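Data availability (excerpt). The following record was deposited with the supplementary files.
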Amino acid sequence: MPRAGSPAASRRNRVIEVGMPVGVPPLPARVPDGKTANVDKYYMVDWVLPPTQLVDLQTAQRAINEAGRRLTEEGHRVRCLHSTYVPAQRRWVCVFSASSAEAIRKTHEIAQLPVPHIESALDLTLMDRLAG
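Predicted structure:
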């Protein structure tokens, strides 16, 4: 078990901002002049599930989707774009499109899941694809 504050411990249950997934448009938002603008950011939640913790991932995924729908109706755009579970590593990875990191936190609170730490990052492979 990693010690608190160690690099291994800090890699657990994090949200990092990533570039736009290919083929998935961001949610449009209204700007003051009435036009729409794509202002959403992309985040990745990377959970490392403890071996003793039994998690019904399908139920958790449905709770996240429902929480995102509710928040979007309230004006805080958030949706889960992609979710993958890697059983050998006990990792659950979700990619979100959201208006803010706070929307990700609220989504987890509504879904009654632990609220992860949020970190900014860039998807460098996306930049290469756009430049090419």
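Summary of structural features: Strands lie at 14-18, 28-30, 36-38, 41-48, 78-86, 91-98, 117-119.
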